[in-house]
Amino acid sequence: MKNYVIEHRGKTLETSHFYPLTEQECEDIRQAYYKRPEISEVKNNFLAIEKGSVIASSIMNYYMKDLMAKVKLYSPRWSIEEVLECNDLIRYFWSRVIASKKVYPPEHGIIRNFETALRISGGGVAMKPSNFPMKTIDMILQKYNVNGNYYDYSCGWGIRMLSSFKNRVNYYGTDPNNLLIDRLTQIKNTYQEVNKIELFTDIRCIGSQHLQQDWIGKIGIAFSSPPYFGLEDYKIGEQSYRDGMSYTEWLNSYLRKTIENCYEYLIPGGYFMINIKDYESYSLVEDSKLLALKSGFRFTEELLLKNRKRPSAKKDLDTNEKILVFQK
Hints:
This protein is of the alpha/beta class. The protein has two domains: 4-121, no CATH class; 134-327, Vaccinia Virus protein VP39 (Rossmann fold). The chain is 41% helix and 18% strand. It has helices spanning 23-34, 39-50, 57-63, 65-69, 80-85, 87-98, 110-121, 134-144, 159-166, 178-195, 247-265, 284-294, and strands at residues 4-8, 11-15, 72-73, 149-152, 170-174, 201-204, 219-224, 232-233, 266-276, 298-305, 321-327. The strands form three sheets. A seven-stranded mixed β-sheet has the order 6-5-4-7-9-11-10, with helices on both faces. Helix 6 (87-98) packs across helix 7 (110-121) and helix 8 (134-144) packs across helix 9 (159-166). The radius of gyration is 21 Å and the shape is globular.
């Protein structure tokens, strides 16, 4: 079987998987991947969220898909955006699609099958970043909400913000990605328009390690799913991890300061919560717990976030993650 060598952005893939799509066919896949759903479908999704749905796929595909494609995970060579720049990498993934009609039924269409190939055959090449389950953030806001003010210290892709809307909790957020902040604002505006309600948000384009003086003593719950050291590179803005940064430096410059700031923001009795997991040799769970205790928090319990697989550097046999719960 012939092996092909694909080179892109200084990285190389040697593979026997290659299907000779034409340049136009590659361009068709590229355009189709980024095609947004109809706005009517998105508005129906907003209506469903307001009524209690936990599915936000149309909203994510409309507002966040292209931003998620920019994210470079630790183990793959490229981001999805970088794959779509390269016709030969598109041909690589398409060869996976045509290899099995059982796994990739033709009736599913080109892009659904292409995304399936990214999900199950993307290890080492390109993978989509994970999203947070809305069912879990709904539970957290319903159980731990103290005063109606929620701080999301790493805004993610907007799922936690959407949950705050339907649960009528004021949403405070920080994230260094300016493009993401713009999209979150668009989501809020359309959600208000469609559901004919007024919502409160205070979202700032800045890293959570920077103290916001006017938030001190305002927040009832601070919860997020922050970056896992160097596991994900979101590319845009002052990210918590920089190339060459040591784990200890990251702990001190980002995670410790973030936790200390959350302590300042919370009212007495307020909750600090963090979704975290160890990977490779990094003891993120224990280190997060130690930093929270040093900041003055009292550890109360540990929740299990089942089957949320955030791609690891090599292998990820355990797909469960932890949510550590602390109280001020």
